Amino acid sequence: MRRDKRGEDEVVVDRVACTAHGVCSVVSNGAIELDEFGYPVPSRLTMGRRDARELVAQCPARALLIARDR
After folding, report:
1. So what's the architecture of 8-66 in CATH?
2. pTM for the whole thing?
């Protein structure tokens, strides 16, 4: 899992799985913006671990993932 010094995780959007519900924009408190078609921009976001896990859990399409080192 990618983490920086401040204990943050990187959330990645699976743009193929995303169905443009827009829930991520609401629950991320504006950290994720939507394009004109309702898809999230940017496709990567770094945030606190608890917030990242909560955001991922609330995506109805399961299109948000916590990045893992390969």
Report:
1. 2-Layer Sandwich (3.30)
2. 0.79
Binned at pLDDT 50, 70 and 90, residue 47 comes out as: confident
At CB < 8 A and 24+ separation, what contacts does 22-28 make? 23/58, 23/59, 23/60, 24/55, 24/58, 24/59, 24/64, 27/54, 27/55, 27/58, 28/55
- The pLDDT, as a whole number, for residue 57 is 96
Tell whether the torsion through CA atoms of 50, 54, 56 and 57 is positive or negative: positive
Q: What does the angle CA 32 – CA 37 – CA 42 come to, to the nearest 5 degrees?
A: 30
